Amino acid sequence: MVGRGRRRIKCKNCGYEWMPNEVQPLKTWHLISPMPDKQGRITVTVMAVWECPKCGSRVRGVMAKTKIGEESFRGQNRTQKLIKILSESKRVSLEELAKHFNTDIRTIRMAIEYLLKKGMIRGAIKGSFFVSAN
After folding, report:
1. In the chain, where are the structural domains located?
2. What interhelical angle do 78-88 and 105-117 show, nearest 10?
């Protein structure tokens, strides 16, 4: 979680509170920030819908946030590493990239789509692979 720490989920109907990982969500989805922050990182927010354990009403909230492109130990951030891998490979599996960056395939797919949209890389996602246009 990015920021000061995880926030509790609060039911608007009865006021019951719980941590996001204490109750199994009914549904989850990802949101990507439209603009990177000052350091060039992209924020990916995982949203969820839970059923309140006390009253049964549905509650929507943030399950987790991660930033793609945080500085790592070698001096290149994750976004730069992803761009380098994609530009040097003719064809690369999204699953392999997800394992390499310790994230899920949907996050990698969204990051690649963002880089393609911004013109930072050339190529296309075909099935479960990224195919370079180089």
Report:
1. 1-68, 70-134
2. 80
Would you call 29 helix, strand, or coil by DSSP? strand
DSSP state of 82: H
Global confidence as pTM = 0.49
CATH class of 1-68: mainly beta
Beta strands in the chain (DSSP E): 9-10, 17-18, 27-32, 42-51, 58-68, 91-93, 123-126, 129-132
What secondary structure letter does DSSP report for 60? E
Q: What is the pLDDT of residues 88-113, one digit of tens each?
A: 889 999 999 988 888 889 989 999 99
Q: Contact 1/21 with Cβ under 8 angstroms?
A: no
The domain made up of 70-134 has a fold known as Arc Repressor Mutant, subunit A (1.10.10)
